[in-house]
Amino acid sequence: MQQQLAQPHTQIACSPEWLALQQQLGFSVVMGTRSMGDLLVLSVPKPDSVNFHIVQFPLCMGIDIQGDHLAVACQTDVRQYHDILVNPSINSPVYKKCYSPKSISFTGDLDIHEMKYNHAGQPLFAASKYSCLATTSTTHSMKPVWQPKFIKELKPVDACHLNGLCMENGEAKYVTLFAPTSEPNGWRNMPFNAGALWAVEEQEAVCTGLVQPHSPRLHHGELYVLNSGAGEFGLVDLKTGKYECIAFVGGYGRGLSFIGDYAVFGISKPRHNAYIQNFPLHDRLRALGEIDRCQLIAVHLKTGDVMRAVTFEGAARELFDTVIIPGCRHAVVMDLDEAQHPDLVVLEGVDAVDSTTKKDCDDVTAVDTAVDTAEDTAEQAEQN
Q1: This prediction's pTM
Q2: CB within 10 Å: which end of the chain, N or C, has fewer?
Q3: Mean pLDDT for the chain?
């Protein structure tokens, strides 16, 4: 039986197969619903329970986790969080990880898409409006660090719709773009299959003929990509550049992650509920008589079998990014108000606390007191 959660604007249903996988492998998953601004943390702390923790953001785009750090790209800023439970003076009998906000970098509207931590621990992101990769800056809106060779000037014209980012050893390795053009909004005037997987260092296309691709990822020596506009998850041969479809998933895919033998990502319904004429994904859905979906998808890497893990109905039409938190059965993300609890004090460089301080922390129940509001909003669904 599916687990269901009712929100004021969205209904969420989880498949039993997915919940069993989360329980078996002991991970949580973070999802962003883009324009709705919901960051959802799905945990299965016990075999008979499901926890959805929901935090509101002003648009929710690229998400990444590196070690104890979490970064979330919003409409005009990048927010960074730290897992405060790594500090021995704070404990929680409920959560394995508790991400507390620590900094906000105000960027203006860069149309940030995917974002990954680099080797220096800085968020590196695709600034789609400016067709470049950039990091956050303490003095400016961003610090551009790379652009495709055909982009001669950084202007806010979304020329090629650079969106996806693949890292290797903390460095940018590949990006995805909708079309290699420098004209303002030029990708919109190009054929749907003008998309490319682009090598950062070599400054050349590795794979062409893709339909609005997203989320290039290196995983166990293989290069995967979401051929989003065709509704496909696929593999790119690193020697030949040939693209091979692994699975048709019936939706516009973004936000690729991996856990065990599965590729995990979100698929979205058409924006504004409008099918586009001659768009490959929409034509195929019509031909198959399938409905469009907003879902978290899991594709088995060996068989190509598709698991429809989590289904969203209602106002939530788009998922943008997903992040797996391995080895964590129960995670929570504080909002800005929860993080300002007066008793939530963490001292850097202090590895231990004396018994008096520890007792004080226990008296106020540390994280649990600070996130009382979070627990109120985290809906608990028990099996029937």
Answers
A1: 0.90
A2: C
A3: 89
